[in-house]
């Protein structure tokens, strides 16, 4: 069966991709997590939180992230008053710290069977439920998939290319040239960080505990996956002749 890749533009003033969020401490990863992206797609498709079979189908897609603009980690200090106590005693005040990414921009690529990829592209264009990046207040700043005339800049949608080729050649999503990216100390090449699903046998594999099994409110479960962190060279062809709008 044929396969394809879905390219998405993940762009918002604020994003949060928690991996170890518990109680009064809510963290964020430096790029979109597998659980966060699967949750985004599930919302677009109208998949119920306890539909483990459908969640497993989405989580089985191979995912790659290219960081087109590194975000800045920010912290909010929250105070919640009159929080009920489980023992019925007087309400209490709860203090919490919540971290998020500010001003980040990502290309997220998902690879799998063509029919599923096409279904997901249509769902993202016309989502069943609202889309947000980690928290309900963190909504997209631009379409995840571009409209005619802007698709190459705002997320190409479905492309018949392998995942790594998409990360290596897709036009840069940035619209400014004072961006935050890395420079190779060896040859001065401009680099964009990538995080890509790989088999556990890969010699550079790292564990990430963000592969979702269930999003049910009383049964949220995750397992580990393996990724490789690397870089792609930001070429003149990827920058293009004109800045993206």
Task: Explain what this protein looks like in three dimensions.
There is one protein chain. The protein is of the alpha+beta class. It has a single domain (3-74, 101-239), classed as 2-Layer Sandwich (Alpha-Beta Plaits), CATH 3.30.70.2660. Helix content is 19%, strand content 39%. Strands 1, 2, 3, 4, 5, 6, 7, 8, 9 and 10 form a 10-stranded mixed sheet that branches. Helix 1 packs across helix 2 (52-59). The longest helix is centred in the first third of the chain and has 12 residues, at 34-45. The relative contact order is 0.23.
Summarize, please:
By secondary structure, this protein is α+β, with helices and mostly antiparallel strands.
What structural class do you assign from the helix and strand content? alpha+beta
Beta-strand percentage range: 35-45%
Total domains: 1
The CATH topology: Alpha-Beta Plaits
Let me know the largest β-sheet: 10 strands, mixed
> What CATH architecture do you see?
2-Layer Sandwich
Task: For the record, give the distance between the C-alpha atoms at the N and C termini, rounded to a whole number.
Answer: 36 Å
| Overall average pLDDT | 86
Share of helix, binned: 10-25%
Radius of gyration: 19 Å
Strands, count? 10
CATH class bucket: Alpha Beta
Order of helices and strands: EEHHEEEHHEHEEEEH
Counting DSSP H or I runs of 4 or more residues, the number of helices is: 6
